[in-house]
Amino acid sequence: MVLIKFENSHEKVAMNLLSFMSSEQKLNVLHHTIQLYEENPNWHLYFWKLKENFVGAIGIELNEHTFNVHHASVHPDFRNEGIGHIMVEHVQRLHEPLAMSATPETKDFLAKCWEHQFSG
């Protein structure tokens, strides 16, 4: 299990994992999102790799004192295994001391991850 930073060679993986988000199901929106991660130095996309499979993605935008989680997705075959929680935890540690915040698209996902953190 490891967190891997997006590279251009991961474009198909990114498109696959991000397409599980309802906001990213249109191809033109998905292409625009990938372009943001490729071109904007404040936007970072990470993958969670389990053995040989990329099973999750989390994308953030860095700001001066915070980072916003814009994208978070776990492949349906690997949901409810705590992978989202682990990805959030790793990204949070990676960008300390910045405070993490959600966007409308990721608030439910992050709330579920935080609930998991405090319940178990």
Automatic annotation (TrEMBL):
Q: Does the keyword Lyase apply?
A: no
**Keyword check for Transferase:** yes
Which InterPro entries does the entry link to?
Acyl_CoA_acyltransferase (IPR016181), GNAT_dom (IPR000182)
Which keywords, in A-to-Z order, does the entry hold? Acyltransferase, Transferase
> What residue stretches are annotated with the N-acetyltransferase domain?
4-120
Source domain of life is Bacteria
- A single Pfam family it belongs to is Acetyltransf_1
Please list the GO terms describing molecular function. acyltransferase activity
Its Enzyme Commission number(s) read 2.3.1.-
What is the protein name stated in its UniProt record?
GNAT family N-acetyltransferase
